[in-house]
Design brief:
142 residues; mainly alpha; 6 helices; 67% helix; 0% strand; globular
Length: 142
């Protein structure tokens, strides 16, 4: 596993890092009403999250997003690790999109107006998978 990201991997890593870090920092001082809304949407898609306190959930989400953003931005974090982490994060977001009523047009994968913001996170999945696939293919060539 390469220790430093290759130069061509930095633009997508930094783009994803900026968005994820911004999202995490925006949740650091969440109020109870916004925490309840965020938690409610997540718990509806992933019922096991319903047992968590909404404020504690959003604080954990915030810290996770900040950690992921920093890992993506740090070129010394191996791309396989950063890619796997962003792939998992994006898969969770897309699961939210697929499981939340009203995010998709009836009987379709096409996003509704409400779901467009979450559906756009498919680019994060593409970045993560691209990093993982490249690193795994590099391994096979050595």
């Amino acid at each position: 596993m390469k220790i430093f990201a290759r130069a061509h991997q930095l633009p997508p890593r930094l783009a994803a890092a900026a968005i994820i870090l911004h999202s995490g920092l925006g949740k650091t001082h969440v109020d109870e009403q916004n925490a309840a809304a965020t938690h409610g949407m997540a718990a509806a898609a992933y019922p096991f999250l319903g047992r968590m306190d909404p404020v504690a959930f959003v604080r954990l989400l915030s810290r996770s997003e900040i950690a992921l953003g920093v890992a993506l931005a740090a070129p010394f974090v191996p791309s396989l690790l950063a890619g796997a982490a962003v792939t998992g994060f994006a898969a969770g977001l897309l699961g939210l999109y697929l499981r939340t009523p009203g995010m998709r047009e009836e009987g379709s994968l096409r996003p509704s107006a409400q779901g467009l913001a979450v559906a756009k996170d498919v680019w994060l999945l593409g970045i993560g998978l691209g990093l993982v696939i490249e690193e795994l293919c590099e391994r096979d060539h050595h």
